[in-house]
Amino acid sequence: VEPMTAQRVADTLGTITGRVPQLVGNSARLVKRIAWCSGGAQGYFDEAIAVGADLYVSGEISEQTYHLAVETGVPYLAAGHHATERYGVQ
User: Fold this and answer.
1) Contact at 8 Å (CB) between 52 and 32?
2) 3-class DSSP state for residue 69?
3) Could you read off the pLDDT of 34-84 as tens digits, one per residue?
4) Quick one: DSSP state of residue 76?
5) pLDDT mean over 5-34
6) At what angle do helices 6-17 and 81-89 cross, to 10 degrees?
7) What 3 state SS string does 22-41 have?
8) Who contacts 32 (Cβ-Cβ below 8 Å, separation ≥6)?
9) Other beta carbons within 10 Å of 5
10) Which pLDDT score, from 0 to 100, does residue 42 have?
11) Looking at residue 84, what is its pLDDT?
């Protein structure tokens, strides 16, 4: 699979879920490895960064998560609690 930008991943995920996700951090970063944890799993963002994720997807976002994305350069995609649980299970 060819790497794509974080913005393209966000746009694609929005189309699939029918909900516009909130992308914070470097939207132009090329994404090869995505870490995804459905629902309210923003607390695992640190671990995703540590294992080499290029983008982290979860349901919710807080101020702390925003700053971590900006400071580390690893984008965070808040795609909605329910939306990520619905597709995360599948």
Assistant:
1) no
2) helix
3) 998 876 687 899 999 999 999 999 888 889 999 999 999 999 999 867 666
4) E
5) 94
6) 80
7) EEECCCCCEECCEEECCCCC
8) 3, 54
9) 16
10) 76
11) 66
- What is the maximum span of the chain, computed from C-alpha positions, in angstroms? 32
Residue 31's contacts (CB-CB under 8 Å, 6 or more residues apart) are 3, 4, 5, 6, 9, 54, 55, 75
- Scanning 1-90, the segments in alpha helix (DSSP H) are 6-17, 45-50, 63-72, 81-89
**Mean pLDDT value of segment 5-31:** 94
Residues 56 and 36: their CA atoms lie apart, in Å, by 6
Cα–Cα distance for residue pair 51/2, rounded to 1 Å: 20
Radius of gyration of the chain (CA): 12
The H or E element spanning position 78 is strand 76-78
pTM of the model: 0.86
**CA distances to 30, 38, 53, 56 from 61, in Å:** 21, 12, 17, 11
Across-strand partners of 55? Answer: 34
